[in-house]
Amino acid sequence: MRVPVAGFAALVCAAVAAGAAAQEPPMGPLRPDQSAFLSLYKELVETNTTLSSGDCTLLSHKIAAHLKSAGYTDADLTLFSVPDHPREGGIVAILPGTSRSAKPMLLLGHLDVVEAKRADWARDPFVMVEENGYFYGRGTSDMKALDATWVDAMMRFKQAGYRPKRTLKMALTCGEETSYAFNGAQWLAQNRPELIAAAFALNEGGGGRTDGHGRLLTEHIQVGEKEMQNFRLETTNPGGHSSIPVRDNAIYELADALARVRDYEFPMKFTDTTRTYFAKAGAARGDDLGRAMVALSRNPADPAAEALVNKDRSYHSMLRTTCVATLLDGGHANNALPQRAGANVNCRIFPGETVEGTQAALIAAIRDPGVKVTAVPPIHPIAVPPPLDPKILGPAEKLVARYFPGVPLVPTMSTGATDGVYLEAIGIPVYGVPGGWSDPDGNGVHGLNERRSVRAVFVGRDFLDDLIRAYADGS
Question: Whole-structure pTM over 0.85, yes or no?
C-alpha cells in the first residue's frame, strides 16, 4: 500500500526543494538480535506462499515453532485452516497483558505473496539475496518484512519477560493477494471474532517514501482505505451468420456500455484523513496544484480547484470511487455474430459507500437495460474509515520526529485495499504503520525483482518495536 507514483513524484519534488529530506546513512555491523531477525526474515521469504504452488499453512507452522522456542505454549497459539483450502491457513498468537481494563491491540499481516515466474526474474524469487543495499525476493517488501517484524517482536517480548499493559495479539493470514482465495482475515472476523478482538490493529499500508536516491522525504500512516469490488458486465444476443451483420451486436452493445463507464465521474468526497492529507501535502508543494489542494480541502464545492486537482490521477482517485474495465471476453466463432460478450469492471469504492450503491451508479451511467451488471463474489464489506485518533497518531509522530528529524508524518488513505476492511467491518480500526520506507518506483511490489532497502528493514524494525511498546503501555 503506497501513495500512487503520479501524485507522490510531485510531492517528492516539493519536499526536495524545501530541503526537508535527510540523506540515508549507511548500515553498520548487525547486532546479534538483528542477525537473528535476518534469519527469520529470510526463512519467511524463502517459504513459497503463492496460491498456485505455495503453502501458507506450512509457513504458519514454522512460525508457531519459532514462537514455541521463545516460550509460547499451545494455549497461546491458534493454527487454523479449512478442509477445502488446506494450504491457505494462518496463525494467531497472544501475549497476555497486565491490565484488565485496557483492550488488546492486534498486529495484522498476510503471509501470501503474488505469483512470481522464475523465467521472468533476474534472480530466483524465492531465494533472498542482498545486493547494493537491497534485499531481493518475492515478499521482501509486500509484506514479509513486516510479518517478520511482528513475529520477532512477539518472540523477544516473551523471551525478555516483557508484560505489556495491553494484551498483544498477532494474526498472520493467507488470501489477501487473490480475491478468489480463502481469506484468513475474513474467516477470523466472521468465525472467530473473539480471538482477534482488539481496540485497534496495526497493519501494512503506511511507511516512508524516498526520492529514489536514499533521501527520506515523508513518513505515512495509513488511516483508511477503499473497498475493492469487481463487477461483471454482460450482453447477450441470438447471434447469427457473420456474412449478414446487424447493428444489434453483443460486442458493440458492451463496447458502448464500457465507453459510458469510462466517461462516468463518481462524485467527489472527503474523509477526515483525505482532507488532512490534501491540506498538508498541498501546503508542502507551494505551486498552483498545491494551492488547489488546500483550497479543495477547505471548500469541496470549488470547481476550479477540483478541475486542477483532478489532472493528477492519484489525487483524482483519492477523491472518489473509481471503476475501470480490466478484462474482456466475447463471441464463440470468428465467422459468427457474438451471442455473448462480457467484461470485468474493477471498482475501488470510497469509504462509506456500498457495493449496491456503486452497482446502481454503474447501471444508471450505462443507461441500457440490455447490459447486465452483477457484483462478482466475493462481496466485500463497506470500507469504514478509522478515526484520526490522537492516541494513535501522537506516539507515531513522536517516534518519527526522533528517528527521522525533519521528516513529516502524513496521514493517508489507500486507494487500494488490504485485509483491514474485514476487521473494520466488525469494529476494529486498522492503521497502516510508518517506520520503513520504499522508493517512488514501488520497489517491484507485485512485479519483477521485488526488493526492500536493507536499512529500511532494520530501522523499520527498531521503530516498530518502540511503537508497539508505546501503544501497548499507553492508555
Answer: yes
